[in-house]
Amino acid sequence: MDLSDNLAGIVERVGQRVVAVHGRRRLPSSGVIWRHGVVVTAAHTLRHEDGIKVTLSDNRTVAAVLAGQDTGTDLAVLKLDGIEIDPVESGDAGSLKAGHLVLAVARADGLGASADFGVVGAVGGPWRTWRGGQLDAFVRLDGGLRPGFSGAALADMRGQVVGICTSALARGAGMLIPATTVARVTDELLTKGHVSRGYLGVGTQPVELSEAWIKKMALSSDRGLLIVSLATNGPAEKAGILIGDVLIAMNDEPCRDFDDLHAVLSAERVGQPLKITLIRGGERQECAVILGERPQRNACR
């Protein structure tokens, strides 16, 4: 009974700071009051930018204004006017271990707070999502999320919210967006409405390099990135990069896959020259690209 009562108490406390977000048709998603007048939710659940509403724990439904969203980390920030509800108590996702018990607390079905009890499936260090966002820790939940639980608060057994849940960052599994990532991205979205990232303006796919190329150019890796598309007037096109080139290094560091490419495209490098090493027509070439800032809603890197 002690465990059961403890879990129910956590759901009750956290549930007061969890809202239903009406940003799509049919089933709403969940959101968390992260700061006074500020709600965070999963960006992929918002199907429109205007007319968003949230339902609070006292069943009031109020208008929300989208301050910004970041598809890379799957976070969106909403602002509420005149709502004085204390935010959640945030915890440290870095303290989680595989097998730890956690509670996902949602509000999406009109029945009040909902809970899903489970365990942490796997943990790791900082990682980049397939959308290019940087998360401060890798935390995979044991199993997928139930409908409406994207944007839900994930609480540890002390009742601290270690982040919010999303189903958009790993196929078939629920993932955690750590509290430190939520805080960092929220700051940037509230300040300027988007998250800055470096931008080359290329579409790529991994390729294996031939043994002849590896020997001829004394390459340290057998993989590179084939340029399959170029954004018109993007940094790469302006620098003379062509479709069919194979990208093998940036600033003399091997570029073997998407993770290597994303690692270079940091906000701090925007406006700075980037040394590109590539293979064109079987020959090694170099060029300099001035890294741009990634346009919003652009699929190119």
From TrEMBL:
Residues 189-282 form the PDZ domain. SMART domains: PDZ. InterPro entries: Chloro_Bact_Ser_Proteases, PDZ, PDZ_sf, Peptidase_S1_PA, Peptidase_S1C. Gene3D superfamilies: 2.30.42.10, 2.40.10.120. It holds the Pfam family Trypsin_2. One of its GO terms (molecular function) is serine-type endopeptidase activity. One of its GO terms (biological process) is proteolysis. Keywords: Hydrolase, Protease. This is LuxR family transcriptional regulator.
